[in-house]
Amino acid sequence: MSEKKKFYVTTPIYYGNGLPHVGHFYSSTIADILYRYNKISGRESRFTTWIDENSQKAVIKAQEEGKNIMDYLDDMAAGHKKVWDHFGMEYTDFIRTTEPRHHVLVQKVLQHCFEKGDIYQWVYEWMYCVGCEAFKKDDDLVFLNKTSGETFPITPKVIESDNIIKVCPDHLETPDNIKEKNYFFKLSKYQTWIEEFYAANQDFVMPHFRYNEVKAFVERGLEDFSISRETNTFWISLPFDNTQVTYVWFDALFNYYTSCVASRWWDKDNENFIDESTLWPANLHVVGKDIIRFHAIFWPAMLASYFDLWEQGSDGIIHYQDSDISKLPETILTWWFFTVDGQKMSKSLWNVIEPISYSEQYSKELLTLYMLCAFPIWNDGNYDRSDAIKMYNAKLANNLWNLVNRVVVLSLKLDQAWVLEPQSLPEEISATLSYLNHSLSYSLNQDQIIELQKSLKEAGETIDVPVKGTMLSYDLKASLDNIFVMLDKLNKYADDTQPWITIKDDQVATKEALYTLAEWLRQVGLQLYPFFPEKMLEMFEKLWLEEYKFHLNRWKLQELIAKQEMFHIKEKWEPLFKRIDI
Ligand code: MSP
User: Fold this and answer.
1) How confident is the model at residue 1 (pLDDT cuts 50, 70, 90)?
2) Whose CA is nearest to atom 29 of ligand 1?
3) Atom of ligand 1 nearest to the CA of 295
């Protein structure tokens, strides 16, 4: 993965028909960490998360609660914001799709694509699942036996009846039958363009097995899709036919563009945009497995249409040009669904983890730690509550906090007015710390890598120097695993040097060990900062590095790592991470 100068990351926009649960928390956390990491690495960065309000689900929910739709959506928006603010997420834009700037932009896009002939009208008869906000074919559905609750694939051998009905596999609801005049987007026109785009950009969908799946889907042939509904709601109306409103995906996907071009540069009174944002296109869209095709196929094709990225060859076919990439997202990072305690999340089972109350009961860092460390982003995962607490106790309360506490207690014992002056670190320790830094951010050149390999070997380390930085290839689990391996080594260093013994008769050795431990904690703290910002700032402050809360916005991570600091511990600390009783 190449070095980036800027970084724009997005989460899916969450439907405004409920408050965020851990599934949503997961994607916002990934985006938030990557945003913070890229920002402190010196890249101009942006992180957006929104609410998808123009959906039928929200209308139905508001009706059920007997509320006016806008009042209902206002309550939901406030509820979503409260969750992200509680966890200190540093989104740079939080906008709702009912906002005028988004309406204006989507209409502008629709008009452009219509004038180009990429949108046409057709009378359409199909099934529509409100839960997915998507049209369905028989292939997308399963049979449900209403008596037993079992679902099974649709085959000609089984006859539909009052008891055996066709349902959406995710929502277990029968889709609505719809026959109406709709507008369609000519996706099929972009068949070759998309195939060529996929061939030229093999990191477009991550992980790679997902890329292969989507590519195979594209190769089976793309069909045009409906972009409008005849319903009379408050959604965005088509500029060329105001009897129709745009159906969820055309509206929802362009949120990523609105946020980027219409956040700072929207001239509200004249409804003008300055389309050129230096941060466009997105570097990363973080999405769940259920919405990959919308992001990986519909979205680039819509952008190709809007940005006129098409060159008709002499064969009459539209071909992809290498320069098109400057207007298209770089990567779609996909995650899987996870279950809680082995079961699908469901309110009736009481296993829905509500992020705020869960964090108040235990700790804010527990959810982040476990969701990122227990399984890689792209694997199916299970949130096991008792495992989560065990992991938190082992990694944060024992491994990290115990060590910090040792340094605090021993420093105070040595001399309360005493400052830990910078001194050179033992060679094998600087080697392992450079390894940590490099393995996360891929910051060294070839010569430096060779040098590092040599010094690791001399230090008796058997670890391989990686070619790709784990933070730059979005492998957050590998990054945390690396950091925790460093903490294990740090604990081992403490056990080897035993400053609690040397303190009795060897001040020089004790000071050297304590300085090394404090410096090591500073470096590990810098690497952990994108994951646990609140706690790491607290740790820096207590180590006499109060100014880090400003430095982390002004300095680059690499420069901070290279700095030489003095440490001064003045008093005993409250635990940074308290043990949780199971
Ligand atoms: N509004 C659309 C996204 C539009 S993006 C232009 C949407 N919203 S959603 O609220 O239903 O879901 C948002 C994301 O949460 C989806 O990517 C979905 O995969 C994810 N999750 C919902 N339940 C989940 C789990 N149980 N586990 C992990 N992620 C889950 O789709």
Assistant:
1) very low
2) 23
3) 6
Q: Are 432 and 486 in contact (CB under 8 A)?
A: yes
**What per-residue confidence (pLDDT) applies to 565?**
92
What is the rounded distance in angstroms from the CA atom of residue 177 to the CA atom of residue 248? 17
Question: Helices H, strands E: what count in the chain?
Answer: 22, 23
With b for 16 or more beta-carbon neighbours within 10 A and e for fewer, the 301-325 pattern comes to: bbbbbbbebbeeeeeeebebeeebb
What is the distance between the alpha carbons of residues 333 and 284, in angstroms, rounded to a whole number? 7
Tell me, what's the pLDDT at 158? 80
Q: Domain 384-562, what fold?
A: Isoleucyl-tRNA Synthetase; Domain 1 (1.10.730)
The whole-number pLDDT of residue 3 equals: 58
Q: Cα dihedral angle (245, 247, 248, 253), rounded to 10 degrees?
A: -90
Amino acid, res. 49: T
Which residues of the chain form CATH 3.40.50.620?
Answer: 6-116+202-361
For the chain, residues classed under CATH 1.10.730.10 are 384-562
Residue 247's pLDDT band, with cuts at 50, 70 and 90, is confident
CA 395 to ligand 1 centroid distance, Å? 29
Long-range pairs for 477-480: beta carbons < 8 A, 24 or more residues apart: 477/372, 477/373, 477/375, 477/376, 477/377, 478/376, 479/440, 479/527, 480/369, 480/372, 480/373, 480/531
Q: What is the mean pLDDT of the chain?
A: 88
Tokens 């926009």 belong to 13
> What's the helix, strand, coil split of the chain in %, to 5?
50, 15, 35
Q: What is the per-residue pLDDT across 476-518, written as a single tens digit (0 to 9) for each?
A: 999 999 999 989 989 999 999 999 999 999 989 999 999 999 9
pLDDT at 222: 96
CA 344, 350, 355, 356: dihedral to nearest 10 degrees? 170
* Ligand 1 binding pocket mutation candidate from 10, 25, 48, 52 (most atoms within 8 A of CB): 52
Q: Which residues line ligand 1 (CB under 6 A)?
A: 12-15, 23-24, 26, 52, 252-253, 255, 287-288, 290-291, 337-338, 345
| pTM for the model | 0.89
Q: Which is higher by pLDDT, 217 or 427?
A: 217
Three-state SS sequence of 28-64: HHHHHHHHHHHHHCCCEEEEECCEECCCHHHHHHHHH
Encoding tokens for residue 86?
């509680």
Residue 346 has pLDDT above 70, yes or no: no
Q: 6-116+202-361, which class in CATH?
A: alpha beta
To the nearest whole percent, how much of the chain has pLDDT over 90? Answer: 57
- Note the pLDDT tens digit of each residue in 353-383: 889 999 999 999 999 999 999 988 887 788 8
